[in-house]
Design brief:
This protein is mostly helical. Helices cover 89% and strands 0% of the residues. The longest helix is centred in the middle third of the chain and has 40 residues, at 13-52.
Length: 53
């Protein structure tokens, strides 16, 4: 079995960079989903309070 460090040494630097960018893109997408969900909640609360107020 090979260790992760030996795999990284054999990989093309462009491949490593692409994998890091993919991980960062996944993280950014998760943050975007969270922001969108919070915006929907904020909008719903605002509309509800306007309708009841």
């Amino acid at each position: 079995m090979t260790s992760d460090s030996s795999k990284m040494e054999r990989m093309d630097p462009k491949t490593v960079l692409a994998e890091e960018r993919t991980e960062m893109a996944t993280f950014r997408s998760g943050l975007a989903v969270e922001r969108t969900t919070l915006a929907w909640i904020r909008t719903t609360l605002g509309m509800t309070s306007f309708g009841l107020g």
